[in-house]
């Protein structure tokens, strides 16, 4: 696996490459995120870990490979925004409509509720578990 990262200074770039073992890094104050990702991961990203949010996350999402994984642990770039200007992922619906694949299983009938709970709690389910109380119930 190739690991790349971004930091805000040349010293930090050197640190994460030399000390943390990243394969490559860029200084986001000197090179745009889109350009850096195109240069360092021209085939796209398999995994993206984000604690910045905002524009950085929006750009990275455009470069995700099919079936890629995104881990979001914060949104430090929007913490200082006034409450009415804070936002999550603006392009999230586009991702769902165009590129994200979800896995779900739908079981029908209230009598299957115990089965659904058992599968979720024991980790037997992979993806989303849905219980429709009756066949005509809308999702």
From TrEMBL:
<dbReference type="GO" id="GO:0016628">
    <property type="term" value="F:oxidoreductase activity, acting on the CH-CH group of donors, NAD or NADP as acceptor"/>
</dbReference>
<dbReference type="InterPro" id="IPR045010">
    <property type="entry name" value="MDR_fam"/>
</dbReference>
<protein>
    <submittedName>
        <fullName>Alcohol dehydrogenase superfamily, zinc-type</fullName>
    </submittedName>
</protein>
<feature type="domain" description="Alcohol dehydrogenase-like C-terminal">
    <location>
        <begin position="2"/>
        <end position="119"/>
    </location>
</feature>
<dbReference type="InterPro" id="IPR036291">
    <property type="entry name" value="NAD(P)-bd_dom_sf"/>
</dbReference>
<dbReference type="Pfam" id="PF00107">
    <property type="entry name" value="ADH_zinc_N"/>
</dbReference>
<dbReference type="InterPro" id="IPR013149">
    <property type="entry name" value="ADH-like_C"/>
</dbReference>
């Amino acid at each position: 696996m190739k690991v790349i990262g971004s930091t805000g200074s040349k010293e930090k770039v050197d640190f994460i490459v030399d000390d943390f073992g990243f394969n490559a890094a860029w200084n986001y104050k000197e090179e745009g995120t889109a350009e850096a990702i195109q240069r360092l991961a021209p085939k796209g990203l398999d995994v993206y870990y984000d604690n910045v949010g905002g524009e950085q996350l929006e750009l990275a999402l455009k470069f995700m490979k099919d079936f890629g994984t995104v881990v979001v642990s914060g949104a430090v770039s929007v913490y200082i925004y006034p409450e009415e200007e804070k936002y999550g992922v603006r392009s999230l619906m586009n991702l769902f409509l165009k590129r994200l694949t979800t896995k779900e299983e739908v079981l029908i009938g209230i009598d299957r509720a115990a089965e659904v709970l058992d599968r979720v709690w024991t980790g037997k389910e992979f993806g989303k578990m849905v219980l429709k109380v009756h066949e005509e119930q809308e999702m």
